[in-house]
Design goal:
The chain is of the alpha/beta class. It has a domain of 124 residues: SPOUT methyltransferase, trefoil knot domain (Alpha/beta knot). The protein is 31% helix and 19% strand. It has six helices and nine strands; from the N terminus they run ββαβαβαβαβββαβα. The protein has a seven-stranded parallel beta sheet, with helices on both faces. The longest helix has 14 residues. The chain is globular. The two termini are 15 Å apart. The model has no long low-confidence stretch (mean pLDDT 87). It comes from Actinacidiphila glaucinigra. Pfam families: SpoU_methylase. Keywords: Methyltransferase, Transferase.
Length: 179
């Protein structure tokens, strides 16, 4: 939100759509090949739609498996009604290995002994993949071996973790340097 004119205490002025268009990219991006959200073992379609919206907000691409229900979930979630950058994969483990082979930094959002706290995660300086696991089982053990880093989102409540859309959104904003 933008503040009012100098000296106008207590007044907050929101930006107009025209002002926002001037400071943001003029259209949807193509593949920026820099930041990827990879919910490779999704359970709930609503989470994919929410994550797709976050990808647009931070300039990231979404990588999803070719499950029959995923295209509909993405279509429902794309409230911008513009094309979004979506990559499809048939084999999540092979896709992750290819990303590592091409030099991408692979970061998993997971509760692990070696995990760094989200607050300590630096902004991405090279191509980075944010791996998000299954909403109930997390990232499969065979995929944990493909991670360069695990990041944990601290919680003080009684739940064990956040849903994929929320966890992924927080990690994407941090890695994009927007938090």
């Amino acid at each position: 939100m933008a503040g009012g004119p100098p000296g106008a205490k207590g007044r907050i002025r929101t930006r107009t759509p025209a002002e926002l268009r001037r400071v943001r990219r003029p259209r949807s991006h193509g593949c920026w090949d820099h930041l990827y959200a990879a919910p490779l073992w999704p359970l709930h379609g609503a989470n994919l739609g929410t994550l797709l919206r976050t990808c647009d907000a931070v300039g990231a691409c979404l990588v999803v498996p070719r499950f029959p229900w995923v295209p509909e979930a993405l279509a429902r979630g794309n409230t911008l009604r513009r094309p979004a950058c979506v990559h499809w994969t048939g084999d999540p483990l092979r896709w992750l290995q290819r990303q590592r082979d091409r030099g991408a930094h692979v970061v998993g959002v997971e509760l692990a002994d070696e995990a760094v706290r989200l607050a300590d995660l630096p902004a991405a300086r090279r191509t980075t993949v944010v791996v998000l696991g299954h909403e109930q089982q997390g990232i499969p053990p065979e995929a944990l071996d493909l991670l360069d880093l695990a990041v944990e989102i601290p919680m003080v409540g009684t739940g064990a973790s956040l849903n994929v859309a929320v966890a992924g959104s927080l990690a994407l904003y941090k890695l994009a340097g927007l938090l």
